[in-house]
Amino acid sequence: MGKIYGVISIKGGVGKTTTVAALGAALANDFGKKILLVDANFSAPNLALHLGYVNPKITIHHVLENKANIKDAIYETDYGFDIIPGSLLYKEVDPYKLKDKIEILKGEYDIILIDSSPTLNEEILATMIASDMLFVVTTPDHVTLSATLMAVKLARQKDTKIGGLILNKVYNKKFELSLKDIENAANCPVLAVLPHEIDILEALAKNKPLTLHKENEAAKEYKNLAGALVGEDYKEKGVKGKLKQFFRKRKKQDMNRIAFKMKVKRFS
Hints:
By secondary structure, the chain is of the alpha/beta class.
């Protein structure tokens, strides 16, 4: 059976949807996994827009309204993974049907990634209930950290496992919160630290996941995180890349990923 991983945040603009697309592409192309992305941001779905799908005919909204079979809402992309998009013009749906609808797909995919709503409402609760494990996207500032702490607290109240934090849009400036401060406040490990790079915006403009757009530091970090999710190591291509990876000093997030991989292997 495959795993359902929810990617959440209780604040818009932190890069949650970008993260879902980048991880999906890395899992499919670098690790050969069968991957499905689901847009569960029912009020403002934009995962499909990130990938260049403007007006899909059948969406998760039709499925939740019992107007379509969920398998008819699955679209094969050019990026190696499948997607269930949302409707830009939508009617209100019952988000709590999400778990039952996607549960039947666990036998067909290695990993299902859910892109949740960035608002504290029934939609994000539905993602928490439907997921085997959650990953919280945050940025290194006090405002986002407060929202992150709320998300972590809520997930624990719903008894959903939290795999770790994904620290995004990092400039490595003194005014930013440190990885240690964030981990201590959330009582949760940071599994990836993603530098803020202009290539991310360029990939978005081209409707392409970052991990397929350019082999920059952020893309490598996403690939390392993808490897951790499946209990494998990401190996850079080429002699130069492999040497650089071998001699690179391990950081705190590297050690956290090693510990996470051990858990994945133990329970797989």
